[in-house]
Amino acid sequence: MEQYLVDHGLKVTVVDTKGRCLVADRDFSPGEIVLDQEPYSSVLDAESKSLRCDACFRCSENLQRCSACKSVSYCCTSCQRKEWKLHKSECQMMVKLSQAKQKLPPPSLRLIVRLVIKRRLQASNVFPRTNVDNFEIVEALPTHFSETGEERLVLYAQMSNLVKAIVTPLEVDLKETCELFCRIACNAHTICDDEFRPVGTGLYPVVSIINHSCAPNSVLLFDGRRAIVRAIQKIDRGTEVTLSYVELAGSTKTRQKALKEQYYFSCHCTRCMNAETTEGTREDSILEGYKCSNEQCDGAVIQERDQPYFRCILCGLTHDGDKFKRLESMATKLTEEANAAVKSGNDARARSIFEQTEAIQTTLYHRYSVHLMRTRDGLLKVCMSLKDWNAALKYCHLTLPAYERSYSMKSPLVGLQYYTLGKLQWFLGDSLEEISGVEVLNRAKEILSITHGSSSKLVQELSSMLLEVNMEAAYRVQKGLMK
Ligand SMILES: C[S@@+](CC[C@H](N)C(=O)[O-])C[C@H]1O[C@@H](n2cnc3c(N)ncnc32)[C@H](O)[C@@H]1O
């Protein structure tokens, strides 16, 4: 692996507090690929199985199901052939399960089954191994076994028994498999499409060397199931390459909690360290605190340490905490109902509940609140699904300032939100005889060319749209239809 990293201008160092770190051994420019890797083991989510090829993870309208197990599909014979050595053992197990009228194992379990099979096939030289595709580099990843809670270990032990039953007659060591579950929990990545919708899970042992930062200098995207790490800012030689493991829209407390629960560490990145300053406290309370009831004040309200009351961090006005809690619990309940309606495909109902939630949250939270941002995002999606483009445009507009505040300006999520806004503006502006989407689409292109790469399908589509929009704008200016 060392040579592979040298060839890519990278090296590994070890730090007491973090373990291994991936460090740039040359300068990387924004948009440059730092690292890309095929997974050691990967699996599609249940919802994506009928839409995507099990080998390349791309969507296809010509999927052919494996005629034996009928549980996986491929887009072409080349993909099927490429996967056959690995799928062969799994296929026999799937057939046995379906003959015994048993349900297919869940994706996390199938990921381990595939890992165990691949390990065995590589050990017996049936499947080729390379310096970045072998079980030893999987084994080098941390497990946090001793820190894993008893409840979770019991679950992993039960799942390991299932793995053992499924992969018979392969030998399976229960403790080792249990450790594999722990390893997957803190090293595997969710595979997403270009718009960050999850499609599956994969284990990428080289990418997994990259540590977390809440202000990361890289972003992880996927081309099919191939992981691609891109620099989103200049990474100087000697600097550690970092990615974010968690949702970045949230206060330091929320991010730290998520990191501790799944990855067992406390983050000391610049963003987390800044949280201890007055400016950091203010930022965190804006993202997740309540709104100050003083009409002249733009502050956010947080609970005073060891006190029952709440105080605005800007004007100092005290507030009744019970009222906040009551409204918050109503909004949380409504959000759950709205999400359930989305899941069941009832967009009209989801919209009506999200609207009630938004009304409560507007009185409860600051305008940059992540809770309000998520509700408006939900409204944006259901309104698009209901083809109410004007309402979708309104909610997209409302989300953007909160997006820019909670994510970095170089975040792909900000770029995608600009893209959605530009498309909606262009679409609606067209009928209003004015074009306002150009600037917004240019901003989207600027960000997405870095995060997704200028040759990506998404940026190509965006560029074609911009060309069309610019031509139309020039035509309208010429005809005096637009200033
Ligand atoms: C995916 S691995 C990253 C590579 C790991 N450092 C190694 O030695 O292989 C995730 C684990 O690395 C450690 N880690 C990642 N980011 C960290 C950070 N910012 N601070 C401290 N530990 C970190 C934690 O132990 C975490 O569970």
Automatic annotation (TrEMBL):
Domain MYND-type residues, every copy: 53-91
GO annotation, cellular component aspect: nucleus
GO function terms (MF aspect): zinc ion binding
Organism superkingdom: Eukaryota
Listed Pfam families: SET, zf-MYND
Record domain SET: where: 10-246
The entry's keywords: Metal-binding, Zinc, Zinc-finger
Protein name according to UniProt: SET domain-containing protein
